[in-house]
Design brief:
Chain lengths: 503, 542
């Protein structure tokens, strides 16, 4: 609904502007000719009324248009989020960030393109119809203007679309190239300075396409302006060299020439909307081709005796074949150098990635998928942009005492303000603090299995001891499997499983 | 945070003064656009004359007027095209110039610079920030000048033709910037009031999208969806409050331009009817010309409004990337020598007091153990000696650095090793056996031409040996080792260190290591503590 009001207000705004110009020029001409019984008060009032309509509709269009934009953007984002229930996006973080601008671009097509084109089309149609009905001289030429506008607009849209597609491809290629070069910065110095400069990516092709887009829009406007002026010059030329239409002193004679002289102004805006249309198309495309990986969610599985793995491994590592047995409560260590597949194994046990082999919980085979309560805590726990309280509770209800209690247990007593904002713009936690926050989260909910990935890396001696003590305590009530290439001396595990690098 | 120098001043100091963007292009564009508008004003005069002849005098318009109008419009049309062409050309040139500076800066400061931000950030400098500055320069700044010159000339001519209309426009014109500044201040105040909430809520969507795995594990997706919805509503409400005021600045301009045209039309009409008799006599000729010219006072200002977002984007670009578009001194990009022949004596002093040292000595062939607590500046020291930091000294010869995380390119093994030059297969195989990777090479399906991505997981130790192979191939006289075994288990640390010891004989070597290394390997020791370096062992050459 708001979309149509926005477009309607835009049409009103544009139409009023054009009407003011035409009615004013006719009015002056009429006053100059001063026919008998000329009611001059009425046009004067009409002009002033049109002025108020234009100003009012201008502000209203911006206000309603922006409100609609914001609401539609929110709606699209919430819908996208809903679509991603039990799923993950396998994309780089910057492409996820781009989703925010894509959703906005899709919503902005109304204010950015549709309004302009609708007002252009309606102004042309209404002028042509009004002029023909009122039998104003040279009225048919407005149809010619309309046709010219349509042709240029169509050409602009098609060429603009082609360029936009090319731009996406080029940007993608640029990012891939520059990614490789930037990530290899540590070895640049091995090359000579000249070679180093040569290997850096150049955004020239990207900019050239952008420039072509700009040039396309500017050229369209320029050609249109030129043709409109040409039409006007032809009309006056005909007036000079042929019989005048009707009586010479007709104030209506200047309506169409005025229309054509100022065509660049009142129709020019419609060409500027091309970038908004391109962004809309790009946004739609991005949302359609989002690489979504569904995650299956499985209900909690009872584990009171043993977890048995036979020839078990992550589906991403076909050679991984682990056979082991874990008690329902206790601390286990999976060791081995980096690259041996420890993270993958833990993710497979939790159900985060698909697995091959056999996994038996108390003798029963659980369903595929992410098992409720079996928490895989990654190396760099995700900190949400939210308060400390929300980061801990993730929306569930807990009392402040419970939260402070659990923070003290993990050694984060210094974070005493539960309302403190974490994440960008707020407090930045160190690597060790993040890991401990991740464990605190896990402690608050019923989680019979913890799978910790490199919990000791980056922590100094005192923090490691504290963490080890905590884990030993918690292991009395649950199964904790730690993957680590660091073996702290004070860590006493029930068993250690060492993975060797797969050859 | 940098002091807020105004954008034009910063641009002039950093970019223009150093010859990348000349002021003359800017003024040429302004001149072309202004002359075009003068042609339009002249064209309007002739148009109005013909309309007057046609409508009032009921005669056919003059051919000379028509030719004049055609000439004026054609000239305006051609100048328009010329302005577009020059603008696009100037933008391309400036883009090239800024990119060159940026590339030179990246090469000069390498790891010390690139590691401070993500790859995505650097890509944004290319794809967004540099273009933002360029667009600002040749669209917004040009339009700023035009938006002042055009009303000046238009008003001048209007005053000549009809002082009454000109005078009243002259009085009302200053009101526009006054109102716009008021509105601007109001909007800025509102923005400040809501700033924290706006920034926090604005990033919520992306933040939750990157945390989908966490939400699935903890079964919090539904709750987060509700929160997202509420946050969006809150954000939208606040944003509308801010833009509700900000839009008024457009409306102010619209108000004045529309009312001006409407009142001028009514005034002219009534004057022609004889209701008023203020000022010189009006005809359809002068009246129509006034009606056509008056909007020019406001139209260029409106066009400036359309470019306004460029100013904000350029300021963001300057804040993010401005430092790296300043010119370099030429010495930073000199090719270093191939050999270290002279004994080096220096006391290092980095810019911004990042690191300072006592008088340090380095003889060709020295092995220096660099120690110190983490965060004390050991990496800084190595980067400074490699020439990546602004300071008073750098090693005069080529260096080869080994860092904690070896770089593996997504290409074949051969291409990984042929990084700086192409070597023969025999040489590559020889080097690989020197670093004890011969067995591993033999196990690869396609030997040297195996893409590394297809090799089942390379261990940390193997990757470092590959990096070491690169060092050998580069044949640099000085090796800088920044904790190469930091992420390796004990056994691999020992074997890799022993390998480095064997292969590094005869080279000058600086080794930073947390883990213990035999003392008798080194003949010199530097201690880094709290950003200060001092020599703790080793002879000093006077």
């Amino acid at each position: 609904m708001k979309a149509f009001i926005t477009v309607l207000l835009a049409v009103l705004h544009g139409g009023a502007g054009l009407a003011i110009l035409i009615v004013s020029s006719w009015f002056i001409a009429a006053c100059a000719v001063a026919p008998v019984n000329f009611n001059y008060m009425l046009p004067a009032v009409v002009i002033r009324a049109l002025a108020l309509i234009r100003i009012g509709s201008g502000y209203a269009h911006m206000w309603v248009g922006h409100k609609h934009l914001l609401q539609l953007t929110s709606l699209l984002r919430v819908q996208l989020f809903e679509r991603l229930f039990a799923a993950q996006i396998r994309q780089r973080s910057e492409e996820v960030e781009a989703l925010a601008s894509h959703t906005e671009a899709i919503a902005a097509v109304w204010v950015g393109w549709v309004s302009q084109q609708a007002s252009a089309v309606l102004m042309l149609v209404v002028s042509a119809v009004t002029l023909l009905v009122l039998d104003i001289p040279f009225a048919g030429w407005t149809i010619a203007l309309g046709v010219i506008w349509l042709v240029i607009m169509a050409a602009l849209c098609m060429q603009g679309h082609t360029l936009a597609k090319e731009q996406i491809l080029q940007e993608h290629e640029f990012r891939e190239q520059s990614d490789v070069v930037l990530r290899s910065v540590a070895i640049w110095h091995l090359k000579t300075v000249k070679e180093q400069l040569a290997q850096l990516p150049s955004a020239q092709t990207l900019w050239q396409t952008e420039t072509s887009q700009q040039r396309l829009t500017l050229q369209s406007m320029w050609v249109f302006q030129g043709l409109a002026w040409a039409l006007m010059l032809i009309i006056i030329y005909l007036a000079i060299h042929t019989q005048l239409e009707g009586d010479g002193g007709n104030p209506l004679l200047l309506v169409v020439p005025m229309l054509l002289l100022s065509a660049g102004d009142w129709l020019g805006r419609s060409f500027n909307g091309q970038p908004a249309l391109n962004r809309y198309v790009q946004g739609k495309q991005a949302l359609k081709t989002l690489p979504v990986e569904p995650l299956q969610l499985t209900d909690a599985v009872p584990l009171s005796n043993t977890l048995k793995l036979t020839d078990f491994g992550s589906v991403n590592l076909p050679e991984q074949k682990v056979t082991a047995e874990f008690d329902a409560c206790g601390l286990y260590l999976v060791g081995g150098p980096s690259g041996a597949g420890k993270s993958q194994l833990l993710q497979a046990i939790s159900g985060l990635v698909a697995c091959h082999g056999q996994r038996l919980c108390d003798g029963a085979v659980p369903d595929d998928g992410l098992i409720e309560g079996w928490l895989y805590l990654e190396q760099q726990p995700v900190i949400l942009a939210a308060t400390l309280r929300h980061n801990l509770t993730l929306g569930r209800e807990f009392s402040a005492t419970q939260l402070n209690d659990v923070l003290a247990k993990v050694g984060l007593a210094q974070l005493n303000d539960l309302g403190e904002w974490l994440g960008p713009g707020g407090r930045v936690l160190s690597g060790g603090e993040r890991k401990r926050l991740g464990i605190a989260r896990a402690m608050l909910i019923h989680s019979p299995v913890w799978l910790l990935d490199e919990p000791f890396e980056g922590l100094d001696g005192a923090a490691v001891s504290q963490l080890v003590a905590l884990l030993q305590r918690e292991a009395a009530a649950r199964l904790i499997i730690i993957a680590s290439h660091v073996y702290p001396a004070e860590l006493h595990c029930k068993d250690t499983l060492v993975l060797s690098p797969l050859s | 945070m940098k002091e807020s120098q105004s954008l034009p001043r910063w641009f002039n100091a950093t970019v223009t003064e150093q010859g990348v963007a000349s002021r003359s292009t800017l003024f040429l564009l302004v001149a072309i656009k202004t002359i075009r508008l003068l042609c339009l004003i002249a064209g309007y005069w002739l148009f109005s004359a013909m309309m007057h002849t046609w409508v009032v005098l009921a005669q056919q318009p003059d051919m000379s007027d028509w030719l004049g109008l055609a000439a004026a419009l054609i000239l305006a049309w051609l100048l328009q095209s010329d302005a577009y062409r020059r603008t696009l050309q100037a933008k391309s040139d400036l883009l090239r110039g800024l990119e060159k500076r940026f590339a030179e800066r990246l090469v000069a400061e390498q790891t010390s610079l690139v590691s401070t931000h993500s790859a995505y950030f650097w890509q944004s400098v290319w794809t967004r920030h540099i273009s933002a500055l360029v667009h600002w320069r040749y669209d917004y700044q040009v339009q700023q000048y035009v938006a002042v010159l055009t009303p000046f000339f238009a008003l001048l001519f209007i005053l000549v033709v009809n002082p009454v209309v000109g005078g009243s426009l002259l009085i009302t014109l200053p009101l526009i910037p006054l109102f716009m500044i008021l509105v601007g201040k109001g909007a800025a105040a509102l923005q400040r009031k809501h700033f924290v909430a706006l920034t926090r809520l604005g990033s919520l969507f992306v933040d939750r999208l990157t945390a989908l795995g966490l939400l699935a594990s903890f079964r919090s997706h539904q709750i987060e969806q509700e929160i997202l919805k509420q946050a969006s509503d809150d954000l939208n409400e606040r944003t509308m409050k801010v833009v509700g005021v900000a839009f008024l600045s457009n409306t102010v301009l619209d108000f004045f331009s529309t009312i001006a045209v409407a009142l001028i039309a009514v005034f002219i009409g009534f004057s022609l009817l004889g209701e008023f008799s203020l000022g010189p006599e009006l005809t359809l000729h002068s009246g129509l010309w006034l009606l056509l010219t008056a909007p020019l006072l406001f139209s260029e200002l409106k066009a400036l409004g359309q470019f306004y977002h460029q100013k904000a984007e350029a300021e963001a670009a300057r804040d993010a990337a401005g430092d790296w578009l300043a010119p370099l001194d030429a010495a930073q990009l000199d090719e270093p020598a191939n050999e270290l022949t002279e004994p080096q004596q220096f006391s290092l002093q980095l810019a911004d007091n990042l690191l300072a040292s006592q008088l340090l000595t380095l003889l060709p062939g020295d092995w220096v153990a660099v120690t110190g607590p983490s965060g004390s500046g050991k990496t800084l020291l190595l980067e400074a000696l490699a020439g990546q930091r602004r300071g008073n000294y750098r090693l005069p010869c080529r260096v080869a650095m080994l860092t904690q995380h070896p770089v593996l390119l997504p290409a074949t093994l051969r291409e990984n090793l042929n990084y700086q030059r192409t070597f023969t297969t025999a040489r590559l195989e020889q080097v690989l056996s020197e670093v004890e990777l011969k067995a591993w090479l033999d196990s690869l399906p396609a030997g040297l031409d195996t893409p590394l991505a297809e090799v089942p997981a390379i261990s940390g130790g193997q990757a470092q040996r590959l990096a070491l192979a690169r060092l050998l191939l580069s044949d640099a006289p000085v090796w800088l080792l920044d904790e190469p075994t930091a992420h390796l288990p004990e056994a691999q640390h020992h074997s890799l260190s022993q390998l480095i010891y064997t292969l590094g004989q005869g080279r000058t070597l600086l080794w930073v290591s947390h883990k213990a290394l035999p003392d008798d390997w080194f003949n010199r020791a530097w201690q880094v503590e709290n950003r200060r370096v001092q020599q703790t062992a080793g002879e000093v050459v006077s």
